């Protein structure tokens, strides 16, 4: 049986600024130093629920699917569907 982990975080910054940055599901390399590249698979736009991003880490990768994008409430949800990362 797979494990389920839920993480929620509050960022101390103006919500409009955070919402604009987080809304770009393909933009993680712009704010996370451990992510070297992000690619949306297929021809999906990065704000389409169901799109999959492949994040390249220093060593390895993670694939994640966008589950929810709620602009009115500044909420987005995603799931990790595959990962191959080395822990040093």
- Weakly predicted, low-confidence segments: none
* Main beta sheet strand tally, sense and closure: 4 strands, antiparallel
Order of strands, main sheet, comes to 1-2-3-4
Shape: globular
Strand content: 35-45%
Q: Please count the helical segments.
A: 1
- What's the rounded overall pLDDT mean? 87
> What is the number of E strands?
4
How are helices and strands ordered from N to C? HEEEE
* Share of helix, binned: 10-25%
Distance between the termini: 27 Å
Determine the structural class based on helices, strands and strand pairing: mainly beta
Radius of gyration: 13 Å
Notes on the protein architecture:
With 88 residues, the protein is mainly beta. Helix content is 10%, strand content 39%. The protein is built from 1 helix and 4 strands, in the order αββββ. It has one helix at 15-23, and strands at 35-40, 52-57, 60-70, 75-85. Strands 1-2-3-4 form a 4-stranded antiparallel β-sheet, with helices on one face. The longest helix is centred in the N-terminal third of the chain and has 9 residues, at 15-23.
């Amino acid at each position: 049986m797979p494990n389920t982990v839920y993480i929620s975080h509050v960022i101390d910054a103006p919500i409009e600024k955070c919402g604009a940055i987080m809304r770009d599901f393909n933009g993680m390399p712009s704010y996370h130093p451990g992510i070297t590249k992000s690619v949306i698979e297929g021809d999906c736009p990065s704000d389409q629920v169901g799109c999959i991003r492949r994040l390249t880490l220093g060593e390895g990768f993670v694939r994640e699917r966008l589950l929810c994008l709620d602009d009115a409430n500044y909420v987005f949800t995603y799931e990790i569907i595959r990962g191959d990362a080395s822990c040093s």
